[in-house]
Amino acid sequence: MHITRLIAALPAAALLACGGAEQTSPVTTPPVTTTPTIDTTPLRTLATAKGRYIGGVTGTAFTVATGNGPTLRATLAREFSMVWSGNYLKFSWLRPAANRYDFFWADSMVAFALKNNMVVRGHTLVWHDQLSTWVTSGDYTSAQADSILKDHITTVMSRYKGKVNIWDVVNEAMGDNASLRTTSYWYTKLGPTYLERAFRLANEVDPTAKLFYNDYNIEGVNAKSDAVYQMLKDLIAKGVPVHGIGFQGHFIVGQLPTQADMLANFARFAALGLTIQVTELDVRIPLPTTTASLAQQATDFERVFNVCLQTATCNAVELSNTFDAETWVLTTFPGFGSPGILTETFERKPSFVAVSKALGGKG
Questions:
Q1: Structural domain harbouring 304
Q2: pLDDT tens sequence across 324-353
Q3: Count of structural domains, the chain
Q4: The whole model's pTM is what?
């Protein structure tokens, strides 16, 4: 966008000579066109000055296939101080067979983060989804299932001890009906105590790691967030080492909870002594996008960042996609897309400018 400034011409002065007036043509100064200065301060620099992390997500085979790998890596290193592991630390990626772990992608991601002075969020140790079929189709007893859980947590956390210090230990244990998800493999085998078991195991492996519970649709005060609040309150009262709560932040443009609602919700979790992080932020837009929908998306991103900045114990906001060509939204919510702050070709969107300004930049 160009800002044009017109400088008005001053009227020519009348020249008097021999009792007569000589007229001259007005002198007009040409218009001066200036280009606004784009704030080139990296988002991670701005976030650090606010005492916060800002996170992006690593790519997948799609990024490699489309040739976007180098650009993605450069963008992550420049703009983000935290890496969300995406798929790379999920059960099915790490354990393709009962007797084999595959750490290739996870090792690469962790090495990249450490090289670029980025914090890694390990996502996720225990989840009902993306489990290997050898687990879900196996006829394991409760004792055997517990052994699988213990082996997984111990092996994965031990490998990255000192390198990954933040873990989503349990992900999405609460159903949309505000009750524990009883269809979860871990619930069916171990009962509701699997949450406590997982957190205690994780703490035994790495007592210095920060252990999080992570879930969606709990950003504002509602029945599900009430249930999660009570669940964590009860676990903490029992001495279970839960250190943080992750609010995933998957939103539809223009349909976020109010800022006051989110602030009140964050405050009650903070009062439990929990560190707060927004862990998978995206704001999906009905396609095709419009100028108005992109402007609203920018307002929505700004709201979430403001809530985190106004909550003393909120120390990070992560995005669920680093650029819009690679996002779970396209396949999960047909007709929606463009959920992030960078376009499919890594160009800055109005939402990028809004985040920069929220963090104290000039946009």
A1: 41-358
A2: 999 999 999 999 999 999 999 999 999 999
A3: 1
A4: 0.89
